Amino acid sequence: MSASTTEATREKSFCRERSDKLFERAKVRIPGGVNSPVRSCKSVGSSPLFIASADGAYMIDEDDNRYIDYVGSWGPMILGHRHPCVLSAVEDALVHGTSYGAPSRLEVEMAELICDLVPSVEMVRMVNSGTEACMSAVRLARAFTKRELVIKFDGCYHGHADSFLVKAGSGLATLGLSEATSSPGVPTQFTGLTMSLPFNDVDALRQAFAQKTAEIACVIVEPIVGNSGLLIPSPEFLKSLTGLCKDSGALLIFDEVMTGFRVALGGAQERFGVKPDLTTFGKVIGGGLPVGAYGGRRDVMSMVAPEGAVYQAGTLSGNPLAMAAGLAQLRYLQAGKVRLYEKLSQTTEDLAEGLKGVLAEADVSGQVLHVPGMLSLFFTDSSEPVQSFDDALKCDTKFFGSVWRNLTERGVYWPPSQFEAAFLSIMHGKNEIKETVAAFKAAIGEAKKTKK
Ligand SMILES: Cc1ncc(COP(=O)(O)O)c(C=O)c1O
């Protein structure tokens, strides 16, 4: 199928026979048939589309349906799929071996590059996932401050380590678990050491610090939230966050697993001019291979073993294939900095404007929030700005599900949850945006017809 395939042809030819058969097989041997819950597409009243290949801004499923991809592997694919620079770097690395369990040059180059691009990071440790990065950063913050309480924010997701599964955003909300304070299996003693506050609520933050100052080891935050759908921090909230942490001696951890090297080359902290004590990374730094990292102030990072006593280790940490892919992607972004981020920003803006137009024309209430490379369309009252997880929870998720199902049939692969942000790549261009906006127009029109 060519990129110029018309929407009508797509709709007519949409088929999911092979995906459905694979899902039946998968459910027998994999819990829920998927290896990460949101992929089940349950909350949008659908089931997974099994992807056979991807290229640039597109993915093709097992039934040969072609989609404009707005999941981008949940963030890593900022250069689009199969970018030549990433492919050739991995091919080159592969010739030398797949894992050594001993240091390699690529790890040093990766650490140096991350520190160059993100000035708050003076030392960095590579791990294998964002979950591992956040879990390790919190352990380190507790060791450094000799305190135990962790503050997070409702709707922020920092991976699935026990102490983070408190009002943890998209994954749990998508499964209808937003009210749960944790997942079964998480001891209450663990979550008892995590306090979750409403995002953007300065008073709640001040109050928590007033009551618990001497106990707070750290505040961990998605500086731009992607896991409630997109939430943007108010300047006052950011200011309070940095000020209160500084005054109390608690460490400020920016979870830039999603935003790192995406919303700007130096991440959200570059955009906002904030210097957190520690930062966690993932996604973009692996170019689509499994990776994570945490880094920050030298005096804090020096406590990590073997330089210090805070234990953290990993058989595959700093894996040469992941380092090669991530380095290639970061270097490409660094070389094209202004041009690439301007393009990403403009494309996101164009999509946002297009979607706002569709909402207005269809007389459907909703809000479009966006930052370069990330966007959310919330089906909610347009007069109440979405600034917190509770605001996001007011969305019409049934309507979202109906729109989502109609979109897939029209060749747009949108995140299968109202509480996830869409990701754009530099391979998304004017044609893709035009087609996406047209697909939304048709999908919203269809969803309106069936709305009760
Ligand atoms: C902000 C944030 N932090 C941490 C994580 C966990 O990363 P991983 O899925 O690689 O464990 C995610 C995953 O989506 C995330 O969005």
Tags for this model:
14 strands, disordered N terminus, four-stranded mixed β-sheet, 452 residues, Aspartate Aminotransferase, domain 2, 16 helices, seven-stranded mixed β-sheet, Aspartate Aminotransferase, domain 1, binds pyridoxal-5'-phosphate
Description:
With 452 residues, the protein is of the alpha/beta class. The protein has 2 domains: 3-69 and 338-451, Alpha-Beta Complex (Aspartate Aminotransferase, domain 1), CATH 3.90.1150; 84-335, Aspartate Aminotransferase, domain 2. The protein has helices at residues 7-13, 17-29, 84-96, 105-117, 130-145, 170-174, 188-191, 202-212, 235-248, 267-272, 298-301, 320-335, 337-362, 389-393, 397-409, 430-450; strands spanning 51-55, 58-61, 66-69, 123-127, 149-153, 194-197, 216-221, 251-255, 278-282, 292-296, 367-371, 374-378, 412-413, 422-423. The chain has a 7-stranded mixed beta sheet, with helices on both faces. A 4-stranded mixed beta sheet has the order 1-2-3-13. Strands 11-12-14 form a 3-stranded antiparallel beta sheet, covered by helices on one side. α8 (202-212) packs parallel to α9 (235-248) and α13 (337-362) packs parallel to α16 (430-450). It is globular and about 60 Å long. Residues 1-5 have low confidence and may be disordered. Bound molecules: pyridoxal-5'-phosphate. Pyridoxal-5'-phosphate binds at residues 74, 129-131, 134, 157-159, 222, 226-227, 255, 257-258, 282, 292.
